[in-house]
Design a protein that fits this description.
Elements: H1 20-32, H2 39-55
């Protein structure tokens, strides 16, 4: 797992509030990933996958 450090220069922070049910669904999805990503990483993966499907 990557260590925490300075964020990439070309990124922007986004604060998103989710209800308990959605948070549980995110955590459940994290646990089935082989590398068990952090919540922010899992959300990035979910968004990237959605954008890829939408563009396809």
């Amino acid at each position: 797992m990557k260590s925490k450090g300075r964020p990439k220069v070309d990124t922007s922070p986004v604060l998103v509030r989710v209800d308990a049910e959605m948070l549980q669904a995110i955590d459940d999805a994290r646990r089935v990933e082989q590398d068990v990503p952090t919540r922010p990483e899992m959300i990035r993966r979910m968004i990237a996958e959605w954008l890829e499907r939408r563009a396809g």
